[in-house]
Design a protein that fits this description.
With 430 residues, the chain is of the alpha/beta class. Helix content is 29%, strand content 26%. The longest helix is centred in the middle third of the chain and has 23 residues, at 134-156.
Length: 430
């Protein structure tokens, strides 16, 4: 009997000495996660996205493109976050790729966040064999296979994890809606730099770590276009967001997956924008590298300062998906009608007290800030270019001002309020 009690005491001392987060992470109903990365750099010259004036094929590769996946599971519920180093899922490619992934892994529509980092130095996706370049059609079809492969790796590598959140700030993104006044007093909004305009400087960082503390993934969310390189550039690159991902992975170790998700940045460009090329003059740091490094180092600083890692046992994943029919602008004096162009995808999920809001368009930063303010969660990842590509969505005041984004948007001024209300309502429903 004495030996029995000694043994019990010895076991109890081990349990009490363990880190509580390890106990939580190893419970059968605890949170599990898997992460994976796959190269999606085009191996042939391709048509590049983002600028209508750019007609020729790419001429080389500055830095590799990747698809990164961070997948969670709690109980029977899953959440698959996919970050791809491309501009977005235009010409119906969002539905094509989502259906392939949902069918392959029996995912509910709300369990999949298929997002793009919106680099303007990457290939365009197309399935149109008549109008699209054959290399781009081939690239799109190959991308589907690679996404299936990388999601399979992430889901197949699930292990107990703990999560931590940290918040930083970065000045890389700048409001691009610049007010110009002519000599005769006429005003206009042009694409440029507006240092006093609204921006969302928040860098939201999520650490996903194994029970022993080693990082599995470090995901981050930041609001900026990937447009430091302009139409004169014909070299493939992840631009500022992609270069930031690569830096974080180099610093933390290449086994760490660092997916970026692009916040509400329809009116936000990098501080240095639409440059003709990577400037390789001696002593000069190319602007995309400079800005990507600044963003990446802030992510590492925030990650290293994360201390609050709440228990994950009993954590739940909940999610919802909706396709809104938003009001559109009248065209040629005709009242607006609901068409495919008015469809706007919203995906929301909660992972404990962390929220994810996927918006299927190019959304102004004011809209993202409003959703964060109304979110019931402590931290909210606003993810644009996600599960759709509906075009620009601007708040009512921007419609009064005009400008490129408003002119090219299919949506009426009141559409932004509809999206804000619905996203917040869906989060509260969770």
């Amino acid at each position: 009997m004495r030996t029995f009690f000694l043994a019990i005491g010895w076991l109890l001392s081990i349990v009490l000495a363990m880190d509580p987060s390890q106990l939580h992470a190893e419970t059968p109903d605890g949170l599990k996660a898997g992460a994976a990365r796959i190269d999606i750099t085009p191996d042939k010259p391709v048509q590049m996205s983002g600028y209508a004036s750019r007609k020729d094929l790419s001429t080389g590769v500055h830095d590799p493109l990747s698809a990164r996946v961070l997948a969670f599971k709690a109980g029977e519920k899953r959440l698959v976050l996919v970050s791809t180093d491309i501009i977005g899922f235009y010409e119906g490619t969002a539905d094509y790729l989502r259906k392939a992934l949902q069918g392959e892994f029996q995912l509910e529509p709300s369990e999949l966040f298929l997002a793009a980092i919106h680099t303007h130095a990457g290939p365009s996706l197309t399935l149109n064999k008549e109008r699209g370049h054959p290399h781009n059609v081939e690239y799109t079809e190959t991308l589907k296979d690679k996404l299936i492969e990388v999601v399979h790796q992430a889901l197949g590598g699930m292990e107990p994890v703990r999560i931590g959140l940290g918040v930083g700030a970065c000045p890389v993104g700048a409001n691009r809606r610049e007010l110009r006044v002519t000599n005769d007093g006429k005003t206009s909004i042009v694409l440029g730099r507006n240092p006093d305009g609204v921006t969302d400087k928040e860098v939201l960082v999520m650490e996903v770590a194994r029970p022993n503390g080693t990082p599995l993934a470090v995901a981050f969310d930041y609001a900026t276009h990937g447009t430091s390189l302009g139409p004169g550039n014909y070299v493939i690159s992840g631009d500022v967001p992609g270069l930031a991902e690569q830096l974080v992975e180099r610093i933390l170790g290449f086994d760490t997956i660092a997916p970026v998700f692009i916040g509400a940045s329809g009116n936000i460009d990098p501080w240095y924008r639409v440059l003709p090329a990577f400037n390789d003059k001696p002593g000069w740091i190319p602007e995309p590298v400079l800005l990507g490094t600044l963003l990446g180092q802030e992510i590492v600083h925030v990650y290293r300062d994360i201390k609050d890692r709440p228990p994950v046992d009993g954590i739940k994943i909940t999610s919802r998906f909706a396709t809104l029919q938003l009001p559109t602008k009248p065209r040629e004096g005709v009242s607006p009608v609901k068409t495919d162009a008015s469809a706007f995808a919203i995906t929301v999920a909660r992972l404990g007290d962390v929220a994810f809001v996927g918006l299927g368009g190019e959304v102004f930063t004011e809209i993202g800030l409003a959703i964060k303010a109304g979110s019931p969660c402590r931290h909210t990842f606003v993810i644009t270019h996600c599960n759709g590509a509906a075009g620009y969505l601007a708040p009512k005041e921007a419609h009064v001002q005009g400008g490129y984004e408003v002119t090219s948007s299919p949506f009426a001024p009141q559409a932004a309020d509809v999206v804000i209300r619905e996203a917040i309502h869906m989060l509260h429903d969770l």
